[in-house]
Amino acid sequence: MVEELQTALREYRAKVDSIEMNPSDKKKLLSLPFFLAKRQQLPEPRRGQAEFNLFTKLSGTNWYNDSTVVIDQETKITEFDYENYFDQ
Questions:
Q1: Which of 11, 21, 37, 45 could form a disulfide with 25 if both were Cys (CB 3.0 to 4.6 A apart)?
Q2: 41 lies in a domain?
Q3: What letters, b where the CB count within 10 A reaches 16 and e where it falls short, cover 11-24?
Q4: Distance (Å, rounded) from C-alpha 65 to C-alpha 80?
Q5: How far apart, in whole angstroms, are the C-alpha atoms of residue 68 and residue 7?
Q6: Residue 39 resides in a domain
């Protein structure tokens, strides 16, 4: 599976390299598969599925506990402060 992914990425890179365009546009096209994979949203698990039970077992909470929360108080790691989370 990893080899298939690497082959597909090499073919994509070769195709992008064959198109004549600005370097900044080429970089955007080359990063596109990674941005799309990062933003993929899978369907939420339903009660009775193995994923739902796994989430409950690992987190100790129900999947739907925070469904009524309007403002999320959890601190998120962003591109602006990710350096603060590296091990010193």
A1: 21
A2: yes
A3: eeeeebeeeeeeee
A4: 29
A5: 44
A6: yes
Q: How many domains does the chain have?
A: 1
> Would the pLDDT of 55 be above 80?
yes
In whole angstroms, give the CA distance from residue 51 to residue 36.
Answer: 23
Residue 46 confidence (pLDDT): 85
Return the residue matching tokens 């077992």.
Answer: 57
Contacts of 63 (CB under 8 A, 6+ apart): 44, 45, 52, 55, 56
pLDDT at 62: 86
- In sequence order, the 6+-apart residues with CB closer than 8 A to the CB of 46 are 52
How much is the average pLDDT of 41-65? 85
Tokens 């004549």 label which residue?
20
What are the φ and ψ backbone dihedral angles of 65, each rounded to 5 degrees?
Answer: -60, -35
- Does residue 81 form part of some domain? no
16 belongs to a structural domain = yes
Q: Measured on CA atoms in the order 18, 22, 26, 27, is the torsion positive or negative? A: positive
Which DSSP state fits 80?
T
